[in-house]
Each structure stands twice: as C-alpha cells, then as structure tokens.
Amino acid sequence: MSRAPMKLYCCGCKGEVQARLVTGKETYPHRRDLHDLPFWRCDTCGNFVGCHHKTKDRTRPLGCIPTPEIKSVRSEIHKVIDPIWKSGRVGRRELYGMIAHVIGVDEYHTANINSIDQANEVLRVAKDLGAAL
C-alpha cells in the first residue's frame, strides 16, 4: 500500500506521529481475512488503527492510534453502549450526546479516546447511563 505518511495522535507515544499506511497482513499476520484491509501504524511503538474501509475514502483512520489497553476498554464501551442505542431506548446520536455532556466535551466518539483514564471514565459513564435508561 503506498500513500504518504499521515500525522496521527498515537496514544502509546503520547503525541503526533508520522503513521505509515500498511495492510492487515502486517498488523494481523495470523488473520488472512484482514490481510487486504488498510491500517495506519506507528513504527515507533507498533500500535495501529483501522480505517473506514467500507467508504469512498477507505484509508481514512477510524480515530487516533490506541494502545492495546485502550483498544480493549474501547471494545468494552461498545459492548455497553451499542445495545442501548440498538434497542431503540435512545438514538445513537442522543446517547453519544449524553456521554459528551457528562465527560465535558463538545462531541463524543469512542475512536477519539486517547488515554486509559479517559477510557475508564467513559466506560463508567456508559454503565451509569445504561442503568438509568
């Protein structure tokens, strides 16, 4: 995959890095089903982020480059919030707005979580909202 490096925030390096576009063959060598998908990789720490591969801009990163720990908590967050909005109790946009309000940001998206502390805070808020709705 050839494309110029892209500046992305890397949670492992705690700053902007020149991420390199790679394929899943490099990030997930054991997963043949991911070999043709694009990923942005930080060559300093080895962390990577996937792309919006099902869109016209298939190499647009899904967010900042997470550490494995942040990636794990992000997954837990989605296990909590996705059933809430998918149930129809509240809309996805409304739920994300609630999370944004509680954590004190203008707009919330799981892919923008860039620290383990922030990830754990969002997980706590998501669980609280899930219990209240």
* Distance from first to last alpha carbon: 45 Å
- Residues in helices, as a percent range: 25-40%
Low-confidence stretches: none
Radius of gyration: 16 Å
pLDDT averaged over residues: 96
* Number of H/I helices: 4
The strand line-up of the biggest sheet is 1-2-3-4
Global geometry:
globular
Alpha-beta content class: alpha+beta
Strand content: 15-25%
Write the layout of secondary structure elements.
Layout: E1 6-10, E2 15-23, H1 24-27, E3 38-41, E4 48-50, H2 68-86, H3 92-103, H4 116-132
Antiparallel strand pairs: 1-2, 2-3, 3-4
Helix pairs in contact: 2-4, 3-4
Could you explain the architecture of this structure?
It is a single chain. With 133 residues, this protein is α+β, with helices and mostly antiparallel strands. The chain has two domains: 1-65, no CATH class; 68-132. Helix content is 39%, strand content 16%. It has four helices and four strands; from the N terminus they run E-E-H-E-E-H-H-H. It has a four-stranded antiparallel β-sheet with strand order 1-2-3-4. Helix 2 (68-86) runs parallel beside helix 4 and helix 3 (92-103) crosses helix 4. It is globular and about 45 Å long. The mean pLDDT is 96.
